[in-house]
Amino acid sequence: MTKTKTKSVNIAKLLAILCPLVYFASYLTRKDYSIVLEAIIQSEHIGKDVAGFVETLSLISYGAGQVISGILGDRFKPQKMISAGLAATAALNVAMPFCPSSFRAVVWFLNGFAQSMLWPPMVRILAATMDKRMYDDTCVNTNIAGISGTVLIYLSSSLLWIGVFDNWKLTFFADAAISAVILAVWIVSFRKIDPDGTLFGKEPKDRISAQVSEIPAKTEKPRLSPRLLFGSGFVFIALGIILQGMLRDGITDWVPSFIANTFSLQSDKAILKSVALPILGVVSLKIIGFINNKFVKEEVRAAGVTFAVGTACCAALLALYTKNQYVTLFASSVIVGTMHAVNLFLVSIVPSKFAKYGLVSTMSGIINSLTYVGSAAAIYGFGFISEHFGWNACVISWVVVAALGTVSCFIAVPAWKKFKAK
Questions:
Q1: pLDDT tens series, the chain, 422 aa
Q2: What are phi and psi of 203, to 5 degrees?
């Protein structure tokens, strides 16, 4: 192995550790509000739709910011964008507990934009430094790291910050502190990776070394066109992305309230039991990661099949959710797990297929923004439905959303296959 190739491989291996760490911090400082949402509702006696509006505004800014960050991530140094975003979100998490309830929406709106500066440039870094196998594996591990951050919040909040100290505000301080440490690790490590600051210049590079990356080098400046989006079947893929975002985040964020209301539980008990959702998400991603490497040839078709499994689970939940809280938790966890798998196929893998057009970060930003269009609609919409029509109507809406996602993915398959063959 040549010296240049050895250096490139070592850089890729280090980034395979650093990027999951950053995503772990991202989830800590983005999901904490939604996880302690029921505790806030119970302690401050506010409505679910009012409390959910804060999270909805954050998701709107996060989604819109993804597009901006995606475009900038293809043109400027992605590592600096990630540093700035992580620093800002840590600071805003520190500020959140000091805010009066009327001002939280503003702070969390800004936090959403800070969070949007992380994923698109990260995808560009991964696509530029890794071959397909390593890229797919790192995407799986990065998603698992994010979910692991969610698990940590569930456990620390329910068992310690709320369970022992009866103070949901401590969750934000702890998550900000961990993120600050990870930020320091990121900055110091990247100085070793790129000491002279030339690895990613103003003009994007599609790979660090042709000896490592299998992604073809682009030959022109990034340019996105309606013809490219329609010809690839992306319109229907986009619908599937929105719908998986609705189910993944909508169910995750509202399950603590769902089981607390259905089975008359206190907020700390509901939060602790809801940890089953992200844990099963980790398990599902490891299984899907193995299946993807061994068997999946077409990611959009795989997303459609996974959506179909999720639809069946939603229907089962509708029939069984009043019977037993543990059956409800398990069924909800399986649904969320299938949506994490769909997210891997559509949000992590699909953007890399636009590398030949120099649009990895741009498409990653657009795709991730669509996820959170769905998330924002779900956080407020599911809260509104449950508040005014009851949880039965809410679960029926989950069945409909999953079925529409299945159809949209299968419609997109023929055009997507032609697009990849070009």
A1: 566 666 777 888 889 999 999 999 999 999 888 778 777 777 777 776 677 788 778 878 888 888 888 888 777 788 889 999 999 999 999 998 888 877 888 999 999 999 999 988 898 888 888 887 888 888 888 988 988 888 888 787 777 667 666 678 888 999 999 999 999 999 998 888 876 666 665 443 444 443 344 444 444 455 677 777 788 888 999 999 999 999 988 888 778 778 888 887 776 677 667 777 777 777 777 787 777 666 667 889 889 999 999 999 999 999 988 888 888 888 888 898 889 889 888 988 888 888 777 777 788 888 888 887 888 788 778 888 888 888 899 999 999 999 999 999 999 999 998 888 77
A2: -90, 130
Question: What DSSP letter does each residue of 21-48 carry, written as one string?
Answer: HHHHHHHHHHHHHHHTHHHHHHHHT--H
For the residues of 292-340, what is the DSSP string, one character each?
Answer: HHHT-S-HHHHHHHHHHHHHHHHHHHHHHTTT-HHHHHHHHHHHHHHHH
Location of structure tokens 């993120």: 179
Residues 6+ apart with CB under 8 A from 139: 126, 344, 348, 349
Work out the angle at residue 139's Cα, subtended by the Cα atoms of residues 280 and 234, and round it to the nearest 5 degrees. 100
In contact, 299 and 350? CB cutoff 8 Å = yes
* Residue where the block lists tokens 């904490």: 32
**Domains, in order of start, for the chain:** 3-200+220-421 (1.20.1250.20)
